[in-house]
Amino acid sequence: MGDYINEFCMHTATCGQLGLEDVDGEVVLCGWAWHNRDHGGLIFVDLRDRDGYTQIVVDPDCVSAEDFAAAEHLGREYVLRVTGKVRARAEEAVNPNMATGAIEVLASKLEVLNTSVTPPFSIEDGIETDEITRMKWRYLDIRRPEMLANLKLRHRAAHALRNALDKRGFFEVETPILANSTPEGARDYIVPSRPNPGKFYALPQSPQQFKQMLMCAGIERYYQIARCFRDEDLRADRQPEFTQLDIEMSFVEGDDVIDMMEDVMAEVLPQVGVAQEFPLQRMQWAEAMDKYGCDRPDVRFGMLLHNITDLVKNTGFKVFASVAQQGGVVKAINAKGAGDWSRGEVEKLASIAEENGAKGMAWVAFTTDGQEKSPIKKFFTDEEWAALKAEMEVEPGDLLLFAADKPEVANAVLSALRLHMAEALDVPREGHALLWVVNFPMFKYDEGEKKYSAEHHPFTQVLREDLDKIEDVPLECGSYSYDLVMDGYELGGGTIRIHNADEQRRVLRRLGLTDAEIDEKFGHLIHALELGAPPHGGIALGLDRFIMLLAEKPSIRDVIAFPKTSSASDPMTGAPSEVTARQLKEVDLRLL
Amino acid sequence: MGDYINEFCMHTATCGQLGLEDVDGEVVLCGWAWHNRDHGGLIFVDLRDRDGYTQIVVDPDCVSAEDFAAAEHLGREYVLRVTGKVRARAEEAVNPNMATGAIEVLASKLEVLNTSVTPPFSIEDGIETDEITRMKWRYLDIRRPEMLANLKLRHRAAHALRNALDKRGFFEVETPILANSTPEGARDYIVPSRPNPGKFYALPQSPQQFKQMLMCAGIERYYQIARCFRDEDLRADRQPEFTQLDIEMSFVEGDDVIDMMEDVMAEVLPQVGVAQEFPLQRMQWAEAMDKYGCDRPDVRFGMLLHNITDLVKNTGFKVFASVAQQGGVVKAINAKGAGDWSRGEVEKLASIAEENGAKGMAWVAFTTDGQEKSPIKKFFTDEEWAALKAEMEVEPGDLLLFAADKPEVANAVLSALRLHMAEALDVPREGHALLWVVNFPMFKYDEGEKKYSAEHHPFTQVLREDLDKIEDVPLECGSYSYDLVMDGYELGGGTIRIHNADEQRRVLRRLGLTDAEIDEKFGHLIHALELGAPPHGGIALGLDRFIMLLAEKPSIRDVIAFPKTSSASDPMTGAPSEVTARQLKEVDLRLL
């Protein structure tokens, strides 16, 4: 009972900490009246605070008549201060499922600190209330134990990360929110500047440029739990503002940042309840794309992609053969356990393939009773068929799904189908799995826009052995880049940065910028690189997503105290809202 | 040499840590070539990193010809990696003023990691470079040891505060930056919302409403090192965005928050080099105004204000007598050591009085050679004069300065003169002094606007004994309010909040709001108070100002990594800047 949490306040213990060792102690508890009931002339109140709940017994023989009357008229969520004595419960009343279930507090005094009107939904876990209602009364939603637990976990994780980084010599440095527009990024939020009519700040999409400046400034090891902003359309794991753990280090090369981050995670994960073995797997980007079809593989289950291009390149099934002969790929997954699905069920999967760019989806079902069902079997020779079954390690009960297309399309299709089938077949994916995906290509080519863009970002260092390829064979350039992947989500990513001004110019030119555009958009970065920039690199981790995965919640909204709706509004405060004509005029703007 | 700072990177030690105990050790150092010189066929380089600097000796007999040639052509701020052996310096070369002054490193290998063009100013402490230039090349400015020390101190202070709060059960919770407009505050920064044409977010001036919501949500103890925004004209200690340590607690009353914060400061201050005795002084607001003329007294020196109204109310000096008779006050300070100032010097002080609202400034000089000079002496009787001298404890060499006006004007005038005279007379103000100023009035009355406003803010709890006075004698209402004052600056302030919806309505009505306006502007707060709000209170500390005072710097710009100029712009990134027509159109705006 001597915790700091119980100092400087109106109570002497929390509602979650009392046990048999406290029996006969006088305590003062504060909290919310959760469940109230009369029984045998006594009133029982489950008094709840953020730490748990304790059973209060109000006996008319032990409190004033006034206090007893107050107890008789308690409403849900009334705020109470209860003074009383801890006593052991009768044996039959002990509740082993409750932290304080061995005791109860016999009240000697009961004060109603505040009343409550009836809440619009129950302050209980697992409610079915729609999310807009929960957000409108967010203070009631958070009062539910599962939401409080999420925010507590968020605090614990952030604090553990801070301590681990402080110990490793990282300084927390705050970078501006009123920043400048980021060239070539997503859409910026813009903020008019009153003393500079017609000019705008942009809210930062990340502190990327500032953290590189801090390395040029000699900070050497920087971190920040930084707010970032992107004006994009929203999804379950996107919010207008989000938080990232932003890290940058000087005098690093190669795998140094990966090694450091892994060391941090090995310290932090046990503190937030995750048992992860270290060192983490480091998977080449090419292998991730080949076997999982994506750069953020969920490695908690198999169902890997098999490349069967060679095997089918001469098959009588013309779709496969022509894709194979025109430089495309034919790949397949084996969804074990779906072999008895009906033709109708299987063909519905084609819509997933099509959403990911496929023109159709071939399949073969091997029923548990030994049949082979497929629209394409007839085009295969016996040898081809046998080879396919061997490659895919077919057993009765298996369903093969195929994609034949350009590699990026085939991968996207099968990656999506793999995740869908894992969900549909309830493939076990318990616990967490972290790994690194490393060595992304430096560039990718956009067929539509006919230009190169950076796979990670344009400040990434090309592998030293690929430096000569930037101008002529950019797609063959690897890069010092790494993503940390958790449970099939990209938790974060980083790169070793370019610290040489000429190298930075070469990469920007390869991305199609003229020297004038480079000076205009990236001038201050180039200047910094010319003035003694140290070798440096970093990483950024999505904190919201990390907590979402740790808490095993479906949406980052469950781990953000005050999130926005899918239309980027806050039903509680009414933001965004109209402003006065004067406010607009002060910043020289008018509405269209 | 085994620190974490030396893991996961290209060096094995920092430039600030080697000593005699490391002699004969092989080390790798990375850093910037600071001071380079040739002497006796050897090249000496002071290699600098964030931790300090180490003397490197490059001997042509110990490195390759190529490395020696590189050493001969080192420019200032070149980035180096040096491999070598630690050796004790010759006795006459030992530098006791340098942390690594007992040793030097004899290089066996020298790599130039990056070159540098000539910096626009020296990377040295105490430069006279104008601030705009420093901000344009901020990464060079921060590379100077004194600026790195400021940011390191900022990290250390913030981390110590976080640890102290975590230990006391506070959860860090992030509140929105894309928030709603704050009624009755300073000018907001506004951000157009694309999915909500014509609507705007406001950047928060403080997380006030969210932290109260978090208390209603049952978080119980919240903190955040929060970015806040005010679109105001800038001064030395104002920036468009600033950082506050924001704290809120539930189940508190009276002095609980003061006690908790004092406990935190007692833990944190020794970690940032401040020896402060505890408990801190708690000065009533009325006493601070009476004796110091302001609510943020610098108590490191005297020169207190004396109220001489009674003493002069019948004097022949009509200015004093009429002010005294019309309910004003006559007050004076004794600036010891200025008694020999010339009449011209003294009368220049009148401009300070006038800037603070006075119509003029009376004075009396007592020269060290025993003369009494004053334009007002002739109006005093001998008894009045003797009483004045006794009250002001006059000695030869003293200068009395007077203010006669409404109390708020007289206080402002003498508070400004007191600080000015302390500066002018070089009154010792060493070290730091913290104290609490408590019990602010709840309301103040604006003669111009003919209405009441809240002295602290409208969510402050009125002293329980003054509750009945809200409607009829509001100026007599005290409040549960407290400011933490350091060295004459308001470091922060807080209050116990209103947790009762009716009480909140009464206060808002007294501020002139109609019930409809209360619902419109404060509806979600009132709802939250009606739904089981716990008693709560909090405090916010200006982090920038705290670090500025700890670092003993004249401006918060020296302790912010990337501050804005007085026109709210950033010379390094060019923010704010123009945006494209398309960007404006997307948010339904056009420029006037």
UniProtKB/TrEMBL annotation, chains A, B:
<dbReference type="InterPro" id="IPR012340">
    <property type="entry name" value="NA-bd_OB-fold"/>
</dbReference>
<dbReference type="GO" id="GO:0006422">
    <property type="term" value="P:aspartyl-tRNA aminoacylation"/>
</dbReference>
<feature type="binding site">
    <location>
        <position position="456"/>
    </location>
    <ligand>
        <name>L-aspartate</name>
    </ligand>
</feature>
<dbReference type="InterPro" id="IPR004115">
    <property type="entry name" value="GAD-like_sf"/>
</dbReference>
<feature type="region of interest" description="Aspartate">
    <location>
        <begin position="208"/>
        <end position="211"/>
    </location>
</feature>
<feature type="binding site">
    <location>
        <position position="239"/>
    </location>
    <ligand>
        <name>ATP</name>
    </ligand>
</feature>
<feature type="binding site">
    <location>
        <position position="497"/>
    </location>
    <ligand>
        <name>L-aspartate</name>
    </ligand>
</feature>
<dbReference type="GO" id="GO:0005524">
    <property type="term" value="F:ATP binding"/>
</dbReference>
<dbReference type="InterPro" id="IPR006195">
    <property type="entry name" value="aa-tRNA-synth_II"/>
</dbReference>
<feature type="binding site">
    <location>
        <position position="230"/>
    </location>
    <ligand>
        <name>L-aspartate</name>
    </ligand>
</feature>
<dbReference type="InterPro" id="IPR029351">
    <property type="entry name" value="GAD_dom"/>
</dbReference>
<dbReference type="Pfam" id="PF01336">
    <property type="entry name" value="tRNA_anti-codon"/>
</dbReference>
<dbReference type="Pfam" id="PF02938">
    <property type="entry name" value="GAD"/>
</dbReference>
<keyword id="KW-0067">ATP-binding</keyword>
<feature type="binding site">
    <location>
        <position position="184"/>
    </location>
    <ligand>
        <name>L-aspartate</name>
    </ligand>
</feature>
<protein>
    <recommendedName>
        <fullName>Aspartate--tRNA(Asp/Asn) ligase</fullName>
        <ecNumber>6.1.1.23</ecNumber>
    </recommendedName>
</protein>
<dbReference type="InterPro" id="IPR045864">
    <property type="entry name" value="aa-tRNA-synth_II/BPL/LPL"/>
</dbReference>
<dbReference type="InterPro" id="IPR002312">
    <property type="entry name" value="Asp/Asn-tRNA-synth_IIb"/>
</dbReference>
<feature type="site" description="Important for tRNA non-discrimination">
    <location>
        <position position="39"/>
    </location>
</feature>
<comment type="function">
    <text>Aspartyl-tRNA synthetase with relaxed tRNA specificity since it is able to aspartylate not only its cognate tRNA(Asp) but also tRNA(Asn). Reaction proceeds in two steps: L-aspartate is first activated by ATP to form Asp-AMP and then transferred to the acceptor end of tRNA(Asp/Asn).</text>
</comment>
<comment type="subunit">
    <text>Homodimer.</text>
</comment>
<keyword id="KW-0648">Protein biosynthesis</keyword>
<dbReference type="InterPro" id="IPR004365">
    <property type="entry name" value="NA-bd_OB_tRNA"/>
</dbReference>
<feature type="domain" description="Aminoacyl-transfer RNA synthetases class-II family profile">
    <location>
        <begin position="160"/>
        <end position="563"/>
    </location>
</feature>
<keyword id="KW-0436">Ligase</keyword>
<dbReference type="InterPro" id="IPR047090">
    <property type="entry name" value="AspRS_core"/>
</dbReference>
<comment type="similarity">
    <text>Belongs to the class-II aminoacyl-tRNA synthetase family. Type 1 subfamily.</text>
</comment>
<dbReference type="GO" id="GO:0050560">
    <property type="term" value="F:aspartate-tRNA(Asn) ligase activity"/>
</dbReference>
<dbReference type="GO" id="GO:0003676">
    <property type="term" value="F:nucleic acid binding"/>
</dbReference>
<feature type="binding site">
    <location>
        <begin position="542"/>
        <end position="545"/>
    </location>
    <ligand>
        <name>ATP</name>
    </ligand>
</feature>
<dbReference type="GO" id="GO:0005737">
    <property type="term" value="C:cytoplasm"/>
</dbReference>
<keyword id="KW-0547">Nucleotide-binding</keyword>
<dbReference type="GO" id="GO:0004815">
    <property type="term" value="F:aspartate-tRNA ligase activity"/>
</dbReference>
<feature type="binding site">
    <location>
        <begin position="230"/>
        <end position="232"/>
    </location>
    <ligand>
        <name>ATP</name>
    </ligand>
</feature>
<dbReference type="Pfam" id="PF00152">
    <property type="entry name" value="tRNA-synt_2"/>
</dbReference>
<dbReference type="InterPro" id="IPR004524">
    <property type="entry name" value="Asp-tRNA-ligase_1"/>
</dbReference>
<keyword id="KW-0030">Aminoacyl-tRNA synthetase</keyword>
<keyword id="KW-0963">Cytoplasm</keyword>
<dbReference type="InterPro" id="IPR004364">
    <property type="entry name" value="Aa-tRNA-synt_II"/>
</dbReference>
<feature type="binding site">
    <location>
        <position position="490"/>
    </location>
    <ligand>
        <name>ATP</name>
    </ligand>
</feature>
<dbReference type="InterPro" id="IPR047089">
    <property type="entry name" value="Asp-tRNA-ligase_1_N"/>
</dbReference>
